[in-house]
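Problem 3 from the worked examples.
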Amino acid sequence: GPFLGPDRGRKTAYIVAGLTGDDAPGDVSVRPRHMAADVGPNDFALIQTPEIGLLTETHVVDPAFGISTAESGAIAMRTPVRPDEIERASILLYDVGSTAELLARATLWPFYGIEAASWLRDPDGSSSVTIVDGLAALEPVEAGFSEDLVRAWYILTEQPVVTHLLAIPIGATDEDVAAIRTRLTDATAAGYAARRDVRKALLEESSVEPERLVDFLARLRYELDARTRTAAYSIIARGAGGTSYPLLRALPWRETE
């Protein structure tokens, strides 16, 4: 089936560079942010982790390829005062993906002791806490405070944040899966080989400090193991309550024939 390549998030920068280069195959779609609704029953898709919960009737999850980051990452909470001075607040999810939303829900109260009065998608002037992801989360703040939620999660759980998983059509063959995995692995390697150009392009569209970007990209991992598979479920179990994403009993990992 067709392959919905990764969203153009910064966690996928190397893969996107490898998939959209001159040698890239033509049947790859790279969009600003793939949602479950974008994924057809025969599509392979690298999507943000919570989206899997909306695809369980048609897809399983690849146990081998996924994107994770530990201890530090590009999902942040911005506050006008120190977080420990905030007890209750409206939370603005400012153009963030589903992984960032669930990470915020999983850390705000358990880690920071901040109770969410409401969760907003559009700014209405009432929110004092803003969640940002991608390059925006890596940029230095001019005023107020910025908290790395990937770090908060790591302190809370000792787990990495698995941001993306590979959704596989239930009827796909082992050969199909191997071909997609190879394409993703090759794309990541191609993007890494061109990392100076990738970093330059990202720096040109943001005010992120070069060292911060280098550190962020260096922390990304693209293979899943037992620990990261557990972590992928953990963020759904701890963060899906109150959202449109189902609280799964388990992730539907694909079993090889």
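Problem 4, a separate protein:
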Amino acid sequence: TYYHITKSINDSTLEMSLSYFNNSDEYCMRAKLLNCIRAFRNNQYEHVLKSLLVLEEDIESFSQDWMKSTLESYLASTYRYKELYRMAHRHFKRENIYAKNTGNNYRIANSYINLGVSYLDVNEPDSAFICFTQVLKDYMPFLNTDKQASLYINIGYAIQKFDPDNSDSIKFYFDKALGLSPSTDLKNRTYMLLSEYFYKKNDILSADSLANKVLKESCNPEIRMVMYKTIYEYHNRTGNRDSANLYYRYYKQLSDSAYSK
């Protein structure tokens, strides 16, 4: 089952397993969970949510905590995709509890990261910082380079939210992320956050340099949208109406496009 969760799910094998096991059998529940994961990957969130909630009612029938952790993780992620952040947060907490019972360091690290991001979603950045630094302290060797870079980005972002005047720490963690030579997407996310940091410090030359780098290199509409909004907010705050209006139009074009999908 673990292989199929981390790899592609073979539809014919899954259908056969669903028809073979009795409804009360744990292996039937595993097959149903795999079916939910397949539907999640196909963006069928309404179907996934209903099915996962039914499985959760009998979660203790799973004999292994990693299965329980997986169920809670996908249930939380489904709520998060539906922007029901408080509900997602409840299930990310449960994922973390079950993950810690597994003794699997990679799974535990990811559950803390998921919980930390969820704390950011519910506007509790100080709690997010605690989760992220727990990973930094105990689980960094179990993460690949991109995961480590992402963790540093999240720590810097959390500090930016609950202690915005702590500029040295914010920049320290963003620089740590860049020092790991992460993927292009992560690198651009870091440049985006650094530019926001410099705009707030009124270091316009550094901020514009990083913002232009992001807009030149990134094709990710989410990153570009946030970047346009950050530039707009800076020019709006400093009274440069022409530039503010220009970047607001860019932001709205992407925002409206994303909303219409």
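Solution to problem 4. The chain has 14 helices and no strands. Residues 1-9, 16-21 have pLDDT under 50 and may be disordered.
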